[in-house]
Design a protein that fits this description.
By secondary structure, this protein is of the alpha+beta class. The chain contains five helices and six strands; from the N terminus they run ααββββββααα. β4 and β5 form a beta hairpin. Keywords: Cytoplasm, Nucleus, Protein transport, Repressor, Transcription, Transcription regulation, Transport.
């Protein structure tokens, strides 16, 4: 066989070789999956220390936040210790705006809750208005440009005349 041709084949095969005799074995690094089962066990242990009991039949939970948004849980797991006035709600929660949830939660509210919802809606509107005011005020400031009082072109001529005298 031609030595030049053999060297060419060896160089080409060394570049294109993926596996086979003489290649380095690389270990496969497997990343551990985040196990929610382990987190649930820790949570169950903490809840057991609080002496809470599971509450069944809860389809959704809404927690109203001060910024006007709602923390909404669908199909949550709820545990309660009624004597200690302690409730634990866990599951997949989403932050939603109050306007998205109002039609669905009106039939769930009692008379006391309706009054608090009205108060919350008023505060939400106040927050929205206060956020919109500074933007409008900044636009008004940009539009106020003072009028020119002096003629700037005439000034250099008077200075030239004074310099010539």
């Amino acid at each position: 066989m031609d030595p030049a041709k053999l060297a060419k084949l060896q160089a080409a095969s060394a570049v294109n070789r993926i596996g086979g005799k003489g290649t380095v074995r690389r270990k496969v690094v497997r990343k551990p999956k985040a196990s929610t089962a382990q987190d649930d066990k820790k949570l169950q242990g903490a809840l057991k220390k609080l002496n809470v009991q599971p509450v069944t039949g809860v389809e959704e939970v809404n927690m109203f936040r001060e910024d006007g948004n709602v923390l909404h849980f669908t199909a949550p797991k709820v545990h309660a210790a009624v004597t200690a006035n302690t409730f634990a709600v866990y599951g997949q929660g989403h932050v939603k705006e109050l306007t998205e949830l109002v039609p669905g939660i009106l039939n769930q509210l009692g008379p006391d809750s309706l009054a608090s919802l009205r108060k919350l809606a008023e505060s939400y509107q106040a927050i929205q208005q206060s956020q919109q005011r500074p933007a409008g005020a900044a636009d008004d400031d940009d539009d106020d440009v003072p009028d020119l009082v002096e003629n700037f072109e005439a000034e250099p001529e008077t200075q030239k005349a004074a310099a010539l005298d």
